[in-house]
Fold:
Amino acid sequence: MARLGSEADKVDPQLRLAARLLPGGYRLHRGLTVPRAVMSLAVRAGRRKGVDTVTVNSNVTVRVHRPVGSDQPGPALLWIHGGGTVMGGAAQEDSFCRRLVNFTDVTVVAVDHRLAPEHPYPAPVDDCYAALSWLARQPWVDPARVGVGGASAGGGFAAALALRARDRGELTLASQLLVYPMLDDRTGAGPDLRPRVMWSARDNQIAWRWYLNGADPGEAVPARRTDLTGLPPTWLGVGTLDLFYEESLAYGRALQDAGVPAH
Structure:
């Protein structure tokens, strides 16, 4: 496995073939046309039939995955897709969302938000907040049992959403589920000698620059926020070879230091 070299033995055996075949990054420095085309294929391939799509506002739609036979208000999770803030769509997560529903009986609603660089911060967070507010108002949702979650950039948006919900005081979240979240714009700024699969340090720096577009990182970047008190209980998961490993570990420890239950 040339790309991972001596680190190959640290990859789960079931994933080694995929790691060998997948590219070492999206090469965002060459533009977004090819990466977005690749992600569009993933969105189309992931789309499952029978999923209700609801328009929240002119910028936001959601895909609703509800447990079969659920009539009473119950718990719900707003799920935010990955894609480095610049690509992807909610339908790519259909199978994952359905598995969550089947395993937990929690309604999962996946949001399609606007993307950078055409729509930099705060537009994607605005869209996710609109979806969260819509979800909490639904008659089949217990507003006291609503969580947010996401993977990669979606995990970063989920963290930003939890901070916004706390700051505004309009919604009280029950949990946040951060899966290898993209939390810190400083990751990849220095030399990164470790080989990567799918998302490189260079990609990360370019994506953050497009997303922030001059915005104050102290406000827009979850890892730069100094006050994490009052955030909901958090589960955070990341692989040791992931580009986001160190920033995820640091954020989890900062949550614990702030008195937030975090695993």
